[in-house]
Design a protein that fits this description.
The protein has helices at about 5-60, 65-80, 85-95, 100-145, 150-160, 165-170, 220, 245-250, 260-270, 290-295, 310-330, 370-375, 390-405, 450-465; strands spanning about 185-190, 195-200, 210, 215, 230, 235-240, 280, 300-305, 340-345, 360-365, 380-390, 410-415, 420-425, 475-480, 490-495. The protein is of the alpha/beta class. The protein is elongated and about 140 Å long.
């Protein structure tokens, strides 16, 4: 027989159950808070001990090198775990029975990652110790005095570090030499195959080669073979080579105008100067013709150079001495000292030429017909007197003087030596690619097949233009005179002495 509970008793029992449930919930929350507090204390204790340990290690490793500090920091970074998500933090505080299957799977993955991190930490620590030990070994090798090094260690250092001077010397050919301080060099910058910059200089310690395209230290030039491209401070290539006699004559300091190399070499051919000859030069000027004559006669011959002006003679002597010094540094042998400079006027200096005979005579004077009566008696019969004249009116005066004085001279020729520079280079487009030859069109009407062939030819031409090295004969060339030409310099008169 069921007993009916009054409505008030039902309400009492319901409140009692709610009170028990809430008390159990409070007890569970209290346990959770206790566990959370304990965990935080353990974390604080661990972090405090780790910080103290790190401080102690840092104090002990103050004398270690920077590389060891970096590797220890990398090891500490490897020990740190990634930050936990809110779900992972809550699941770590709850009992295992109250977790869902998804949370249990997540906890297992975290444990596996923790185990893998421990293995990685051990490997990183071992690698760090190896790196630090290797660094210490290198540091010990660098700090070891030279006197305490073993023979094997010294031999290994020599084998690992090549001798730059020996490699540079071995790279030169027999008879060649490296660039040294004091010799004359030429710096050239090429743009589109044309020389945009050319300068003659003498390398010196601690100086620079300046140009509009940047600078190069002279110390970086010395010790290299000639004929190399060096990068300037702006990254542009400059060709460094030795100065030839032609370069030196064109770029040396001048007093009066020089006899240009094209005219000087022609005069040498006119006079047929060979080694061992004795040559008379009147009009030293800046010393250009004196240098060409000095090289032509060699060490067995001699040149007598006469100049009426002292300042011109001084400049000629300085230029001659400067070239001889550069030559001795380059070839490690002396340039023949076979030129005798004199300050005199040949019109009244017959005593200077007394008792001397010459195989050839070179005159570079304003009025050469005035000195002919003095110099022609000392010229060997059948020899040549070459005269350098700037104006054609001077040529007329010379011939008129020979006629009036009835000198034993025969005018063989009067010439001028023109040189015409040409520009011959492969044709290029604006983008730098090579142009291509176009085949001629034989018929005006084209079928579809011919149009397809033309399309294929166009694609082939485009591929050829993109190629850096097209096939032989596939690139057209530009061939025309250069816009800048060397104009008239002088008239050369060849006079040969005959016996009356």
């Amino acid at each position: 027989m069921a007993v009916q509970m009054p409505f008030g008793g039902f309400l009492f029992m319901h409140r009692l159950m709610r009170t028990c449930t809430s008390s159990q919930r409070h007890l569970r929350h209290g346990e959770m808070l206790v566990n959370l507090t304990t965990t935080r204390q353990e974390i604080r204790t661990f972090s405090t001990s780790s910080v103290r340990c790190n401080n102690k290690e840092r104090e002990d490793s103050d004398s270690s090198r920077l590389s060891t500090k970096l590797t220890s920091k990398q090891a500490l970074l490897a020990r740190r775990r990634r930050p936990l998500s809110p779900l992972e933090r809550i699941s770590g505080l709850l009992p295992q029975d109250a977790l869902s299957p998804e949370v249990m799977q997540l906890r297992e993955q975290n444990q596996q990652e923790a185990e893998g991190g421990t293995d990685t930490q051990g490997s990183v620590t071992h690698r760090t110790q190896q790196e630090s030990g290797h660094t210490d070994t290198l540091a010990a090798d660098k700090t070891t005095p030279k006197g305490e090094e073993s023979d094997n260690h010294h031999a290994s250092d020599v084998a690992m570090v090549p001798n730059t001077s020996e490699s540079r010397t071995s790279a030169t050919l027999p008879g060649d030499s490296l660039i040294v301080f004091g010799e004359l060099l030429i710096a050239e910058y090429y743009k589109k195959g044309q020389v945009e910059f050319r300068k003659m200089f003498k390398p010196q310690k601690g100086t620079r080669l300046h140009s509009s395209w940047g600078f190069i230290l002279h110390d970086n030039i010395v010790g290299l073979p000639a004929g190399q491209f060096l990068k300037t401070s702006m990254g542009l290539p400059i060709l460094i080579r030795r100065a030839s006699l032609e370069d030196y004559v064109l770029y040396m300091r001048r007093a009066p105008a020089i006899a240009y190399p094209k005219d000087a070499t022609t005069m040498l051919m006119m006079m047929d100067v060979t080694e061992g000859d004795r040559v008379l030069e009147s009009g030293s000027g800046s010393g250009a013709m004196s240098l060409f004559l000095s090289r032509a006669v060699g060490s067995k011959g001699s040149v007598l150079s006469v100049e009426v002006r002292e300042d011109h003679l001084r400049r000629a002597m300085l230029n001659y001495s400067r070239w001889r010094t550069s030559w001795s540094l380059r070839r490690e042998e002396d340039w023949p000292d076979n030129v005798q400079f004199h300050n005199a006027d040949l019109c009244t200096a017959s005593s200077l030429l007394a008792g001397q005979g010459f195989h050839a005579i070179a005159l570079d004077l304003t009025n050469p017909h005035l000195v002919l009566p003095t110099v022609i008696p000392h010229l060997h019969p059948g020899a040549v007197c070459a005269v350098y004249l700037a104006n054609v009116t001077q040529v007329v005066d010379l011939l008129e003087g020979i006629r009036c004085l009835a000198l034993p001279l025969l005018c063989e020729c009067i010439i001028e030596v023109p040189i015409r520079h040409w520009l011959v280079a492969p044709a290029r487009q604006k983008n730098g690619r090579y142009c291509t030859r176009k085949a001629p069109i034989l018929e005006e009407d084209h079928s579809e097949e011919e149009e397809e062939e033309e399309r294929t030819d166009q694609t082939d031409e485009e591929d050829l233009a993109a190629d850096e090295h097209p096939a032989f004969g596939g690139v057209p060339y530009i061939a025309r005179p250069c816009p800048k030409q060397l104009s008239h310099t002088a008239f050369l008169v060849k006079l040969r002495k005959f016996v009356q």
